[in-house]
Amino acid sequence: MSQLAQQPCEACRSDAPPVSEQEIKTLQREIPEWSLVQRDGIPQLERVFAFRNFKQALAFTNQVGDLAEQAGHHPALLTEWGKVTVFWWTHAINGLHKNDFILAARTDALLTQAP
Amino acid sequence: MSQLAQQPCEACRSDAPPVSEQEIKTLQREIPEWSLVQRDGIPQLERVFAFRNFKQALAFTNQVGDLAEQAGHHPALLTEWGKVTVFWWTHAINGLHKNDFILAARTDALLTQAP
């Protein structure tokens, strides 16, 4: 598990500062499989996870859902046959907060855990 | 439950004919909450279901997932805080088959069942 995955999430309010471009570059090195995308005009972190079938994909969606509930921070999860696309961003600021990078790293860490 | 929801799905091969425009108009009357959209250039049925929070949204995603596994026909499910967007289409023909309308009607019927 990366060091980033072990950091605590901070409470995030609508006046919280988004991460700077320099911080994004530094944090992205910890989660190299994630892409920085614009979705509905909002910067988000995106990663596609591949699975053998729909059932395994849905099981992973539920794992990420549990992680989200524990953190009180929720992604968008696109579940399809054989893949799950995960999007992390912070609704309160319509952008990226350090929490999103922490949760992306924790999502990666789920892959190394038993289902 | 609509009559459509009670019809059996047919096996669908890559040479199966997609539904005609006239058939689409007739079938759409049975599932008035669904929109006909183009996603990645493929015609699909889309409906957004609203929920109180992430947990309830994810529970619905799992209900639709169970329905899909039983039918052997799988949608794309976008799970977010307070909503699930369901997309039905037929991968084998890159378009809409009658099965998609049947599964959309069955998805509607889930709302009237206990979770």
From TrEMBL, chains A, B:
InterPro entries: PCD_sf, Pterin-4-alpha-carb_dehyd, Pterin_deHydtase. Its EC number is 4.2.1.96. It is an enzyme of class 4 (lyase). It comes from the Bacteria. The keyword Lyase applies. One of its GO terms (molecular function) is 4-alpha-hydroxytetrahydrobiopterin dehydratase activity. CDD domains: PCD_DCoH_subfamily_a. The keyword Lyase applies. GO terms for biological process: tetrahydrobiopterin biosynthetic process. It catalyses: (4aS,6R)-4a-hydroxy-L-erythro-5,6,7,8-tetrahydrobiopterin = (6R)-L-erythro-6,7-dihydrobiopterin + H2O. PANTHER family: PTERIN-4-ALPHA-CARBINOLAMINE DEHYDRATASE-RELATED (PTHR42805:SF1). NCBIfam families: PRK00823.1-1. Belongs to the pterin-4-alpha-carbinolamine dehydratase family. HAMAP family: Pterin_4_alpha (MF_00434). This is Putative pterin-4-alpha-carbinolamine dehydratase. It comes from Candidatus Halomonas stercoripullorum.
